[in-house]
Amino acid sequence: MNPYNTPIYNYLREYAKKNINIFHMPGHKLSRGIPQELAQEVLKLDVTEIEGTDNLHYPEGIIKEAEELAAKAFGADKTFFLVNGSTCGIQAAIMSVCARGQKIIIGRDSHKSVVSGLILSGAEPVFAYPQYICDFGITGAITAKSIEKLLCQHPDAVAVLITRPNYYGICSSIEEISSLVHSHNKLLIVDEAHGAHLAFNEKLPPSAIKHGADICIQSAHKTLPALTQGAYLHVNGNRVDTDRLKLNLSMLQTSSPSYILMSYLDIARELMEREGAQKLDLLIDEIEWFKKELEKCPEYRVLSNSMYDFTRLVINISKLGISGYYAEKLLREKFKTQVEMADFENLVFITTTADNHETFSALLDAMKGLPKIIDYKKKTENINMNSNIIKKYYKELHNNIINNLIETNGVTNMRKAAVNNINKGVLPYEAYTAIKEKIPIYESCGRICADVITPYPPGIPVLYPGEIIEEKHIQYITAIAEIGGTINGLSHNKCVQVVK
């Protein structure tokens, strides 16, 4: 029994003792994926910039050597270690290629860190909308055709930023998009936060680095045996102003970088380079076994297509008649299994080289047991009603994309007249600097959003700062909250921040 009054430490120690089958990040899975000789006496790695330890912001010694080894392993021309996560890498990338007022084409399914990058740079977003996968109710890939259309409509855009893979493991065609973007003499930034492992096995979709992304940001901690906040930023070619990039990274990252995080970025690279291909082969085999066994359960459907990173397990549970949020709760409380993320009808499991037959067998038992403990008589109308609202929201978005009804110019879309032409949208950095007020979400229709409204996870904004709040947004956000989802950007009393 720990005698110290240390709430965080105490809880985490107890969590580790519960022997929970974890399918969430970080990728080392409570140290399972790291040789024990490399996981001991971590506090002895916690040093500072002294003689011999080098300096992250001006590397000339061991950090420079480690970054060069990483660049070689991942296939990049230059690699920067990040200790503030992929977030700071995405922000720095946008700030390094965009000046205030310049346009950048971005995937509408981008992480909320892209929003902060837009605010910091003052850039004007032009939205590329992903496809929609009806059967699972999730966003899919962004097509090269949609990017090409935007490049032709907005020749003054300076760069393109896409997320690949997305939270569900779906990969846009990077070879096609990269070739297209460069044919228009634009820069390509890829948020590959969920794809640091792709470079180490040819059975998986190729990393964006392989096909010439100018900047590629990867969260090592998501799928590699690294610690949370550890990430890589890779640069290819000579199109990127690396001096400007270095300056932005030095401004966004702490001036006291963690040597523990940097050490494990180095360790993760070494372990993957040494045995990653073999371990990923074993992981893929285990996933295939698991999927075949789960196919015997009619209650579930597993996401799989040709553009998919199949180390990411996405299981649709809609036939159970409960929300994904409730299924996540039941798995944790009744079967000691913790998923990475749940949405209204899917469960997302992060699998890594730290997983094995034992963890997958336990997961299979949990999934088989889940339907047996659900009282189907309590399948409420509330769940069904809210699910229909959510599906309607995405279906409308999907139909708009198909029919080309959505205005592809992000700025024009933000500035368009709203209810009775009273309010007009503004750019993200304009909303950020404006005077704001909080009002109930149900009273916000027609107002200008002044915050990032994001179901988290997966962290994809429903509303950007500067966008007009519409009734469909209110219904969708409310439905997610009522089913049990978490909405970042809303206060506990369901209020939203708007431009005054």
Descriptive account of the structure:
This protein is 38% helix and 15% strand. The protein is α/β, with parallel strands linked by helices. The protein folds into 3 domains: 55-272, Aspartate Aminotransferase, domain 2; 276-378, Aspartate Aminotransferase, domain 1; 385-499, Ornithine Decarboxylase, Chain A, domain 4 (Alpha-Beta Complex), CATH 3.90.100. It has a 7-stranded mixed beta sheet, with helices on both faces. It has a 4-stranded antiparallel beta sheet with strand order 11-12-15-14. A two-stranded parallel ribbon has the order 1-13.
Features:
Ornithine Decarboxylase, Chain A, domain 4; alpha/beta; 15% strand; 15 helices; 3 domains; 500 residues; lyase; globular; four-stranded antiparallel β-sheet; Aminotransferase class I/II-fold pyridoxal phosphate-dependent enzyme; Aspartate Aminotransferase, domain 1; Aspartate Aminotransferase, domain 2
What's the quick description here?
With 500 residues, this protein is α/β, with parallel strands linked by helices. It contains 15 helices and 19 strands. InterPro entries: Orn/Lys/Arg_deCO2ase_major_dom (IPR000310), Orn_Lys_Arg_decarboxylase-I (IPR052357), Prn/Lys/Arg_de-COase_C (IPR008286), PyrdxlP-dep_Trfase (IPR015424), PyrdxlP-dep_Trfase_major (IPR015421).
